[in-house]
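Hi support team,

I've been running sequence recovery on a batch of backbones for a student project. Most finish fine, but this one hangs at about 90% for roughly twenty minutes before it completes. I'm not sure whether the input is malformed or the queue is just slow. I've pasted the C-alpha cells below so you can try to reproduce it. Let me know if you need the job ID as well.

Thanks,
M.K.
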C-alpha cells in the first residue's frame, strides 16, 4: 500500500482541476467543549508541539503527562466556561464569521474561482481536514493565511509545520502560497487604528494606551525569533497613523507560563504598577489576536481588569480584537490579493 494519498477519480479531460484558488484561514484553536476532558485533549496537542516548548523532549513529556495534564485542564475548563457562548468557542465562532464574510467579499468582487476554508492549528476543524476539503473539491492552488499578524515560531512557524506534514503525504502536492505575517500591511494597520480611534472618540484619550501582545520565552528572542521586534513595529505604525503622543502608549506582553523569563514588560505587572504612578485611567488592546479568545475575553477583559482595579485603578476598558469588522475583512483581502 502506498504511503501517498491522492484523488483517483480525477477526470482531467473534463477540466475538474482548472485553476482555482483555495484559501485556508487558520487560527490557534479551542477545545471542543469547556470540559476537563476536552481541555485535556486540546492542551495535550498544544503543549506537545516542539515549537511551543523547546526543552529536552523526554523531560518535558514527563512534566506534561505527570503534572500539567493532571492539574491544568480542570482549572482551564473553568476559564473556558466563563467565556463560552451559545455558539461555542468565541475564537472558533468568530473565525467562522471571518471565513463567511471574506468568502462573500471575494464573490462580490468577482473572485469566482476561490473558496475559503477555516482550520485550527490545534483542535477542530483541523488543518488536515481543511486541506483535504480543498483537495476533494479540486483545488490545486492553495493560499494559507495564518491569522497571526506578527510572525513567531510557535504560531506561524507551527502552522507551516502542520501544513507541510499533511502535504508530505499527498501524491499531487498543490501550488502553495504561505503568508507568514502581515504586521506592516497598511490595511491591517488602518483597521487597528480605526478600532482605536472609534474608542477614543467615544471615551476620550486615557492616561495610558496599552498594546498588550501575547508573550513568549525570552530565549526565543535570543535565538532569533523576530516576534518581539514585529510587535514593537506594529505599535509604532499605529501610533504614527493616529498621531498619538508616544509617551501615552506602552507595549507589554501577556500570558506568560512557567518560571522562565518571558518578553518584558509583563502586562499584569505593568497594570499593577500604574496606579502608584498616578495612572488610573487606561485602555488596552491586543493587536496580536485577530479574534477574541480566552486570552482577551478572560485574561485581559477580566483578570487584568481586576489586577488594575485592585491596585487602585479607576477606569479600565478593553478595545476588542478586530474580529469580523468590515475593515478587517477588507484587510484580509488586501493581504491575499497578490496571491489571487
Amino acid at each position: 500500500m502506498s504511503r501517498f494519498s491522492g484523488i483517483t477519480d480525477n477526470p482531467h479531460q473534463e477540466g475538474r482541476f482548472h485553476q482555482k484558488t483555495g484559501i485556508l484561514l487558520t487560527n490557534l484553536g479551542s477545545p471542543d467543549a469547556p470540559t476537563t476532558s476536552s481541555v485535556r485533549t486540546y492542551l495535550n496537542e498544544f503543549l506537545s508541539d516542539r515549537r511551543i516548548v523547546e526543552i529536552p523532549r523526554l523531560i518535558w513529556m514527563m512534566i506534561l503527562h505527570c503534572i500539567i495534564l493532571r492539574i491544568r485542564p480542570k482549572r482551564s475548563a473553568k476559564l473556558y466556561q466563563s467565556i463560552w457562548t451559545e455558539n461555542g468557542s468565541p475564537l472558533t465562532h468568530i473565525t467562522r464569521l471571518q471565513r463567511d464574510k471574506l468568502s462573500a467579499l471575494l464573490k462580490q468582487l468577482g473572485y469566482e474561482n476561490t473558496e475559503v476554508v477555516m482550520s485550527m492549528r490545534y483542535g477542530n476543524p483541523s488543518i488536515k481536514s481543511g486541506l483535504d476539503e480543498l483537495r476533494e473539491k479540486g483545488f490545486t492552488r492553495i493560499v494559507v493565511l495564518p491569522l497571526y499578524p506578527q510572525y513567531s515560531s510557535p504560531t506561524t512557524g507551527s502552522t507551516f509545520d502542520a501544513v507541510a506534514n499533511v502535504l508530505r503525504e499527498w501524491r499531487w502536492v498543490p501550488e502553495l502560497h504561505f503568508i507568514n505575517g502581515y504586521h506592516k500591511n497598511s490595511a491591517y494597520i488602518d483597521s487597528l487604528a480605526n478600532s482605536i480611534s472609534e474608542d477614543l472618540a467615544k471615551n476620550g484619550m486615557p492616561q495610558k494606551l496599552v498594546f498588550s501582545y501575547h508573550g513568549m520565552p525570552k530565549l526565543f528572542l535570543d535565538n532569533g525569533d523576530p516576534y518581539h521586534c514585529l510587535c514593537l513595529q506594529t505599535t509604532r505604525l499605529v501610533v504614527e497613523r493616529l498621531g498619538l503622543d508616544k509617551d501615552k502608549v506602552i507595549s507589554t506582553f501577556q500570558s506568560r507560563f512557567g518560571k522562565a523569563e518571558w518578553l518584558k514588560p509583563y502586562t499584569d505587572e505593568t497594570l499593577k504598577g500604574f496606579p502608584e504612578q498616578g495612572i488610573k485611567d487606561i485602555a488596552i488592546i491586543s493587536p496580536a489576536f485577530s479574534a477574541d479568545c480566552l486570552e482577551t475575553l478572560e485574561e485581559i477583559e477580566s483578570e487584568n481588569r481586576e489586577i488594575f482595579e485592585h491596585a487602585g485603578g479607576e477606569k479600565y476598558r478593553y478595545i476588542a480584537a478586530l474580529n469580523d469588522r468590515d475593515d478587517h475583512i477588507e484587510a484580509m483581502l488586501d493581504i491575499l490579493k497578490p496571491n489571487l
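--
Follow-up from support: It reproduced on our side and the slowdown came from queue contention, not your input. Residues 17 and 314 are 60 Å apart (CA to CA). No action needed from you.
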